[in-house]
């Protein structure tokens, strides 16, 4: 895999952004874990990759806020039309230089399991809630995440779309499975929706290992409101399979297995 140089920095390159997630009461780093991350200094100069992560995280959060404001907006049509023109202008700017689908983002570190555009946990992803992982409550057999789902994730009125809940559960189970063996992929995910999941309420998403049989792992996950621990709103059983070298190469190409997230 060839490495690409970072784009030339602008006047904002030394600007350090602290990303906070509304409703969760703590700040988060670019890897989607609880805590804060600031650019590393080398001889007094901020590390370019860390600085860029902070900038894309800030932009991703701004686009996420835009989406949330838009889906709840009831402003006049002329305001919407003007906003559409402004957004298209920014889209043209961002689209000037694009990576290929088989290229990792320059801000990612697959070996370090940093994927800032992950659609579930990526702080730079406008699609992600994001779900923040709590290392203080996680170990090799259990993983805990927290998220707040806004109007952009609405299914039934005032409740989250079931597909979003399935994505949260699949991600948390995959992270537990990856701490047991790598590389793994989901082979089956059964989700039981026990009650609607409310919007704009802090959620607790938990995954744990239930059984390991050779290359096959079985895990269980739950979604609860933080304010009502023990009251399960959705639960899942996930089955994961550990890939052998041939399968991993066929799916991901001839990469170092440590780089496969």
**What strand order characterises the main sheet?**
3-4-6-7-8-5
- Spatial gap, N to C terminus: 15 Å
| Poorly predicted residue ranges | 9-31
How much strand? 15-25%
What is the string of helix and strand elements? EEHHEEHEEEEH
Please give the number of β-strands.
Answer: 8
- Give the helix/strand class: alpha+beta
Q: What does the main sheet amount to? A: 6 strands, antiparallel
Mean pLDDT: 84
Helical amount among residues, as a percent range?
A: 25-40%
- Give the overall form: globular
Count of runs of 4 or more consecutive helical residues:
4
Oligomer status? single chain
Describe the structure.
The protein has 261 residues and is α+β, with helices and mostly antiparallel strands. Helix content is 26%, strand content 21%. The chain has four helices and eight strands, in the order E-E-H-H-E-E-H-E-E-E-E-H. The protein has helices spanning 48-71, 77-94, 162-180, 245-252, and strands spanning 41-42, 45-46, 132-133, 142-147, 184-193, 203-213, 216-225, 232-242. Strands 3-4-6-7-8-5 form a six-stranded antiparallel β-sheet, with helices on one face. The longest helix has 24 residues, at 48-71. The model is unreliable at 9-31 (pLDDT under 50).
């Amino acid at each position: 895999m060839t490495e690409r140089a970072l784009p030339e920095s602008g006047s904002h390159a030394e600007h350090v952004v602290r990303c906070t997630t509304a409703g969760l009461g703590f700040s988060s780093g670019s890897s989607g874990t609880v805590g804060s991350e600031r650019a590393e200094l080398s001889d007094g100069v901020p590390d370019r990759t860390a600085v860029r992560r902070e900038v894309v995280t800030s932009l991703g959060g701004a686009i996420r806020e835009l989406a949330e404001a838009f889906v709840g907006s009831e402003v006049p049509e002329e305001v919407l039309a003007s906003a559409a023109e402004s957004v298209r202008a920014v889209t043209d700017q961002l689209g000037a230089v694009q990576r290929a689908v088989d290229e990792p983002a320059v801000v990612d570190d697959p070996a370090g399991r940093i994927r800032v555009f992950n659609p579930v946990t990526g702080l730079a992803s406008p699609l992600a809630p994001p779900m923040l992982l709590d290392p203080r409550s996680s170990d090799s057999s259990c993983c805990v995440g927290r998220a707040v789902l806004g109007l952009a994730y609405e299914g039934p009125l005032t409740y989250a779309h079931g597909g979003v809940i399935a994505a949260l559960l699949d991600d948390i189970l995959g992270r537990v499975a990856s701490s047991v063996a790598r590389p793994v992929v989901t082979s089956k995910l059964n989700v039981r929706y026990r009650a609607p999941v409310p919007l704009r309420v802090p959620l607790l998403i938990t995954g744990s290992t239930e059984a390991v049989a050779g290359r096959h792992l079985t895990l269980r996950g739950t979604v609860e409101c933080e304010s009502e621990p023990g009251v399960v709103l959705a639960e899942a059983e996930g089955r994961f399979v550990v890939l052998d070298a041939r399968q991993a190469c066929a799916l991901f190409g001839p990469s170092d297995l440590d780089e496969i997230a």
